[in-house]
Design goal:
The structure holds two protein chains of two kinds. By secondary structure, chain A is of the alpha+beta class. Chain A contains 13 helices and 14 strands. By secondary structure, chain B is α+β, with helices and mostly antiparallel strands. Chain B folds into two domains: about 80 residues, Roll (Ubiquitin-like (UB roll)); about 70 residues, [2Fe-2S]-binding domain (DNA polymerase, domain 1, Orthogonal Bundle). The chains are: A alpha+beta, B alpha+beta.
């Protein structure tokens, strides 16, 4: 099918975008990569009267690291994040997750900010932003506002963004000394949205100088943040599972305890293809897989 | 009256200026307005990959962009890349390996495969499958397509030496 008629506006600055948003309110839709918006327009699930194309607003693009903070512009493409050495050094979780997002042709066009603002419950970036305690920066004609990722995602395709607001960039605390990241997901086909996925970051080792001498497969886990996606309306922090692993080495019994804590954290919602019980099983398997890789393997 | 936008873009190396409605997809623009029917339109929701083209040098879905957004851009289609010889090695390998039956997916497959070989000139079979994972083929079962891309990569390596 084809999209319904709309008016097309192509601003060059954030200020122009805000003026248009203030004028048109929820009649307007911002288009970035359009990889989720255009399919919904083509099947007429969405029919915005006005489309505000931000692809030429240069100040919304780019990746920078400064004083322990990684800043990613909303318009930064998935493929740019996947290829960025700055991202790999400061937020390796994002580098691990990027190849799981759809396919190359989609990654070349889809954007970081667009994915967060869309808030598909089965998408990768919202879970990563939650694990990394990212701060999401919003601006409107009324002023600027910062929202923690934990408060930003509110439901299926629902976020804290008001109709007159634009997501400009995201700030992420750089990964600390001794910390490692891990990411895994199960999808029915390569590149599909996840049935279940998991993102993790945490510290392995003892405190201070001794911690740096530990080899892979040694030490204790600390300060773990584990988020599952595809299991609920928004990313779910698995705090009970993380508590079961806190200050423990990763052995069979602690991993089992963490897996058995998962039902305390969430009961997965079923989808068109998979029951709640099947997703709960996958969540256990993925937790074991991602923690084992993080502890013993290549988790950075 | 639906507003009309004038756009100027370079398609297959040739600059062209046209008038389009905002809702004209880039894929429909290439096919209907420019007569470049090598770019196929399948699902129109970004899933099947038949409409894959190069946009400023990178592969994208032409059904997930509006033509008006391509104003000022460079777009390369299967026709243009055939003419420049960019796809010759792949096309020969597809032919030799029977990597197409009905041919509907082939233009998208060729763009995706050429993009893969630019990024990774020596892919293994898993990497080829990952590189083509966004392109559906309902005839071949994919094996012959993977064979063809592997052969084109091999021939490319030999041509380098």
């Amino acid at each position: 099918m084809k999209a319904a008629r709309f008016d097309y506006i192509r601003p060059r600055t954030v200020q122009e975008v805000l003026d248009h948003l203030a004028e048109h309110g929820d009649e307007a839709k911002v288009i970035a990569g359009g990889q989720s918006l255009v399919p919904t327009m083509n099947v007429r699930l969405a029919a915005p009267a006005v489309l505000i194309d931000i692809n030429h607003v240069e100040e919304l693009s780019g990746i920078e690291a400064d004083k322990g903070t990684l800043r990613i512009g909303a318009l930064t493409r998935h493929a740019e994040i996947a290829a960025s050495e700055t991202v790999a050094a400061h937020a390796p979780l994002l580098s691990m997750a990027a190849p799981w997002i759809a396919h190359e042709a989609i990654r070349n066009r889809g954007t970081f900010g667009g994915s967060l603002a869309t808030a598909d419950p089965a998408s990768e970036w919202p879970a990563c932003a939650t694990v990394l305690d990212a701060t999401i920066h919003l601006v409107s004609a009324r002023g600027t506002r910062q929202v923690a990722a934990g408060d930003f995602f509110q439901g299926v395709y629902e976020t804290a963004i008001e109709p007159d607001e634009l997501l400009t960039h995201v700030e992420i605390p750089a990964i600390g000394e001794g910390y490692r990241a891990g990411f895994s997901e199960f999808a029915r086909r390569k590149g599909d949205y996840a049935s279940v996925g998991v993102a993790v970051q945490g510290r392995v080792g003892a405190s201070g100088a001794i911690g740096r001498l530990l080899k892979r497969g040694e030490g204790r886990l600390h300060d773990l943040r584990i988020a599952f996606f595809g299991v609920a309306a928004r990313p779910m922090l698995a705090t009970a599972a993380a508590a079961a692993l806190e200050e423990q080495p990763l052995d069979e019994s602690t991993l089992k305890a963490a897996q058995e804590a998962l039902p305390t954290d969430f009961t997965p919602m079923e989808d068109l293809y998979m029951s709640s019980a099947a997703k709960a099983h996958l969540a256990r398997v993925l937790l074991g897989r991602v923690m084992t890789t993080l502890y013993h393997g290549e988790g950075r | 009256m639906e507003p009309i936008h004038e756009i100027t873009l370079t398609v297959d190396g040739e600059q062209t200026t046209r008038r389009v409605t905002a809702r004209r997809s880039l894929a429909d623009f290439l096919r209907e307005d420019l007569g470049l029917t090598g770019t196929h339109v399948g699902c129109e929701q970004g899933v099947c990959g038949a409409c894959t083209v190069r946009f400023n040098g990178e592969q994208i879905r032409a059904c997930l962009m509006f033509a008006v957004q391509a104003d000022g851009a460079r777009v390369d289609t299967v026709e243009g890349l055939t003419e420049t010889g960019d796809l010759t090695r792949l096309q020969e390998a597809f032919h030799r390996n029977n990597a197409l039956q009905c041919g509907f997916c082939t233009p998208g497959m060729l763009i995706a495969a050429s993009d893969l070989l630019i990024r990774n000139p020596d892919p293994d079979r898993e990497e080829i499958r990952a590189g083509l994972s966004g392109n559906y083929c309902r005839c071949t079962g994919y094996h012959a397509i993977v064979d063809a891309v592997a052969e084109a990569a091999q021939n490319g390596k030999e041509a380098e030496q």
